[in-house]
Amino acid sequence: MITVFGSLNVDLLFNLDRLPAPGETVLTREIVQLPGGKGANQATAAAKAGAPTRFVGCVGEDGLGAPVLASLTAAGCDVSGVREVPGATGTAVVMVERSGENQIVVGSGANMAVVASMLESVALGPGDTLVCQMEIPPEATAAALAAARRAGARTILNLAPARPLPPEVLADVDLLIVNEGEAAVLAGSAAPPLETARGLAAAHELTCVVTLGGDGALAVTPDGRGCRVGTLAVQAVDTVGAGDAFVGVLAASLDVGMGLPNALHRASVAAGLTCTRPGAAAALPDAAEIDGRLSALARPVDLGDG
C-alpha cells in the first residue's frame, strides 16, 4: 500500500505561444482548470499504475478541492485521509508554451495546514510505502518520514521544490528523488549528476535517483551501484506532470515488488507518455498504456559501483 502525504492544488492552465519575459504581458484565449499538486499528482500516478494508494492532505472550505478529490477517487485512490480546513485550497498558475516548457506559481493555501498527526489513522507498517514532497510544511514532512521509519515502512522523498535538509531528516529516507537542480541544492555543489548521486547515497545511506529531463534518469544505491535509463521518444506537448508521473510510477512499481532497474524503466516510460498530453493529473497514463510501451525504451544500463 502506498500512502502519499502531501499537497493538493487546483491548477489554472494557460497555454501560450511563448512564455512571458519579466514585466511582459502575454495574451491567450485558453484557460483550463485541472486537478494538481505534487502530492495529488503522484498519488494519481501511483494508483493508475496499479498500486493500492491513499492520499493524506488538506483542502480549503472554498469548494475548489472537490474536483481534485473526485479526480483522485476516479483514479482509484482512497481520499478518506483528506481534511477540510478554513481558507483557500492550494492553487497553481501554470503557463505552458508551444515547446512544452513551463512556468509555475503556487499559492499554498490549505497545504500549509497539513500536519504529521494526520497519518495516525493510516497505521503505516512493514510492507507500506510513504511518499512525500516539499509543498507542505517541512516540519510535517520530516515528522512523517520519522514516523514511517519507526513503523518499518519504506520512505520516499521527492525533494521538490528544492531546499536544504538536515542530515537527521535524510536519515529517515530510503529513496530520494531529485532533479539536477534539486540535487545541487542538497549537495551544495554542481558536480556531475552521477557523482552527486553517489555522494548523497553514500553520505545518507539511501538510494538516490536523479532525473535528467530529456536525458532520462539515473539511480545509485547505498552500496554505490548505479544504473541509468533514457527517455521515451515522444512529441512533447506539456512537460508539467512528467516529474510527478515518474515519482508515482516508480513508487508504485517498487511497492508491487519490482527491482530498482525495472521500476526505473517503467517510471521513465510513464514520464514520457505524460508529456504527450496537456495538464498534470489529467495527462497521467494507466498501467496498460505504460506496460504497452515498455519495449519502446531500452532497458537501464548498469553503471557499476564507480
TrEMBL record:
Pathway the protein takes part in? Carbohydrate metabolism; D-ribose degradation; D-ribose 5-phosphate from beta-D-ribopyranose: step 2/2
GO CC terms in record: cytosol
| Active-site residues (renumbered) | 244
Q: Which GO terms describe its biological process?
A: D-ribose catabolic process
Bound how, and how many: what does the cofactor note say? Requires a divalent cation, most likely magnesium in vivo, as an electrophilic catalyst to aid phosphoryl group transfer. It is the chelate of the metal and the nucleotide that is the actual substrate.
Please list the reactions this protein catalyses: D-ribose + ATP = D-ribose 5-phosphate + ADP + H(+)
Cite the binding residues for substrate. Answer: 9-11, 37-41, 135, 244
- Enzyme Commission identifier(s): 2.7.1.15
Family label: Belongs to the carbohydrate kinase PfkB family. Ribokinase subfamily.
Tell me the PANTHER family matching this sequence: RIBOKINASE, SUGAR KINASE
Summarize the protein's role.
Catalyzes the phosphorylation of ribose at O-5 in a reaction requiring ATP and magnesium. The resulting D-ribose-5-phosphate can then be used either for sythesis of nucleotides, histidine, and tryptophan, or as a component of the pentose phosphate pathway.
- Official protein name in the record: Ribokinase
Q: Which organism is it from?
A: Thalassobaculum litoreum DSM 18839
Upper classification of the source organism reads: Bacteria, Pseudomonadati, Pseudomonadota, Alphaproteobacteria, Rhodospirillales
